[in-house]
Amino acid sequence: MNLQNKTIENQEIVIDNSSVFNAIGSDVILKNCTVRCLVPANSLGIRGTLIDTTIIIEKKLTNFSWLEANLEACKFIGTLDKNQFGNKQKGIGSAKGCDFSEAKIDDCLFFGEESSSHTFPLWPNFTILNPKENLSHLHKVMDKDEIIEDIVDSIEFFDKELGAISFDAKQLAKELGVKTDEIKKSIASFDFIK
């Protein structure tokens, strides 16, 4: 699939051929559409503008960058792992007011000032808003809390453009060898962690 120079409204677009590179070009506008994605990140490029569009990830999408797409009020359904959204280093992409409440997101990065405008999934997912700004609050307790120490290690080297980072507590618990309840207890006192 190769969409270029089109405006499409109220249609379903299925991206299911992983043997070719599927592209939604920068001059494409999708409004009120449904995009079904069944291909891995290396078979996909999205640079267009998607407005009020539902994006259904049928197979887990790992290491995908949405940084060249303009996403406005889009809804995401499915599993996203290590994806990046928003605007980084004054790039061309943006993400504003998107709904991730029905998505499973892990280790996903949200860049830019609009990061707090998104609706993030509830527990067992959790999202740290303005992580660089709030790093000092985490540093205060990391010596007493191994879970917080691991979270700090994962965000410490990002620049100030990082507006939010989301984790799946089940996956993090597995990596740390702890229970999800322990993670919940560790993050409960921070109002910038949702």
Throw out a few tags for this protein.
194 residues; alpha/beta; five-stranded parallel β-sheet; 4 helices; 38% strand; elongated
Descriptive report:
- With 194 residues, the protein is of the alpha/beta class.
- The protein has a domain at 2-121.
- It is built from 4 helices and 17 strands.
- Helix 3 (169-176) packs across helix 4 (180-187).
Summarize the entry for a quick read.
This protein has 194 residues and is an alpha/beta fold. It contains four helices and 17 strands.
Q: What secondary-structure arrangement, pairings included, does this model have?
A:
Elements: E1 2-3, E2 7-9, E3 12-15, E4 22-24, E5 29-31, E6 34-37, E7 44-46, E8 49-51, E9 54-62, E10 70-72, E11 75-81, E12 84-86, E13 94-96, E14 99-106, E15 108-111, E16 125-129, H1 135-142, H2 146-155, E17 162-168, H3 169-176, H4 180-187
Parallel strand pairs: 1-4, 2-5, 3-6, 4-7, 5-8, 6-9, 8-10, 9-11, 10-13, 11-14, 12-15
Antiparallel strand pairs: 15-17, 16-17
| Number of DSSP-assigned strands | 17
The secondary structure category is: alpha/beta
> How many helical stretches?
4
What percent of the residues sit in helical stretches (DSSP H or I)?
Answer: 10-25%
Uncertain residue ranges: none
Mean pLDDT: 93
What's the order of the H and E elements? EEEEEEEEEEEEEEEEHHEHH
